[in-house]
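Hey, sorry to bother you again with one of my protein questions. There's a protein on my desk that I can't quite get my head around. No rush at all, and the record is pasted right below.
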Amino acid sequence: MRTARTRATSGTTAPCATAPGVSASGATAGGTRSRRLPRNDPRQYDDLADQWWQPDGAFAMLHWLAEARAALVPPAARPGAILVDLGCGAGLLAPRVAGRGYRHVGVDLVRSALVQAGAHGVVPVNGDVAAVPLADGCADVVAAGEVLEHVPDWRRVVAEAGRLLRPGGTLVLDTLNATVLSRLLAVRVAELFPGVPRGIHDPRLFVDAGELVRECARHGIALRVRGIRPAVWGTARWLLRRAVRPAGPGVAADGQAGPGAARDRQSGPGAAGNGQAGAGAVGNERAGAGAVGRAGVGAVGRAGVGAPRIVPTWSAAVLYQGWGTRQG
């Protein structure tokens, strides 16, 4: 889901690529939704609120990407460490970084997603990722998964990440590259598949990898990038299984009861209420940046039995991952 666009297209962390479960009109396979919305409209996430924690649902690939992103998050180097999750959506990163010692703060514009994030242990903050209502230097880690390609000015989001990070803090992200191939595969081809939500991405907002590296450097973050993709055979097996056994309300990715509808989570613990959550500044001890060089990856387990792995690839022309440390 993401955050930060103009009002009509602003705010949400939207999925990179989505899996079968939603029709061209934004309707579920059962046809319960019919309205058409502009590309990248955050209201799509309200319409798809019951899909977040279904590992074979419309947001399946976001589970796989969250698993890979989590592998780049180092263990907390100090008590009280904070991880700020920009465009947190329903908190898919939370079970994957649980136990690493962080207070997990999630920022998003979509309240229906924040309610679910709160139910998974995330401190919800209803806000714009381009103007985060948190103190300078409060974060040991900033995660920006599948959000930069959903905002009108991704450079402002990078600036916010730099502002939020403590010296020595780690930025981890993944996004879609601004290339002809990326626009072709992530939009034109992907949206041909039955059940893939149409209009989740606006290809005009995709982020050039080289420009992103340079912009991060301007804010003191030495970013490394590499191409990633779903493993071919794992994806083929997943698609086959998905075709034979359509997704339904079952067991959620973290082992909890899967949501048949988002309303079942509305009264759960951690509901965002008015969406506001205070998060003050923390001290200025340095946070160690841990080893982040290895590839992220197995999605089996939390992302669903037999889910594809996200693996490194030689080209960053479509989907890529970045990680880096903020200099002092």
